[in-house]
Amino acid sequence: DAGVIQSPRHEVTEMGQEVTLRCKPISGHNSLFWYRQTMMRGLELLIYFNNNVPIDDSGMPEDRFSAKMPNASFSTLKIQPSEPRDSAVYFCASSLRGPNEKLFFGSGTQLSVL
Amino acid sequence: SQQGEEDPQALSIQEGENATMNCSYKTSINNLQWYRQNSGRGLVHLILIRSNEREKHSGRLRVTLDTSKKSSSLLITASRAADTASYFCATDAYSGAGSYQLTFGKGTKLSVIP
To answer: What is the pLDDT of residues A51-60, one digit of tens each?
Structure first.
């Protein structure tokens, strides 16, 4: 299995632009997570899907952030409009059945908003 | 909010020495996990210990869990330069939004000097 696949690996954009991050979880995994990592705040859970349904989006910072999982093999995280404070590494992770099991992480998307 | 906190924040040792990292958490848990992150990469799962377990081994890794003290330790024996990475503990905690979240500490940065 190729593991969790994220794209793009790096994204540089200007303030106000829309950014879309993509994730393909491991086949057969029912749970998908989006995390954000910064030096100041560490790793923060943004949203968690189970069987393609958002279970917990309490970590989504504000309405500028949205996430979708249209099917079991694809998820997107969108930021519109982007701001410099959104600069971070965004990780997607998946697990077989939920947050109580081991998570498999993608390589992350390094986002820089200028 | 951070559920787990690692100590120390940074640790530098000579190759061959043992490295011990500690994690303290605040609320009751179902399990505790340890992850490693190499610079610029995603997190990799190392070991999961359940709340009814006290000790677990995996190769050169030994994890202990003391639920009465709400703490865990990760011991890496006979360290190698390749063990240089950041190490995170993660605990499942009720998010208050109807589900459990896997929340991460800010990590211990381990440097193993050849």
So the answer is: 999 998 888 9
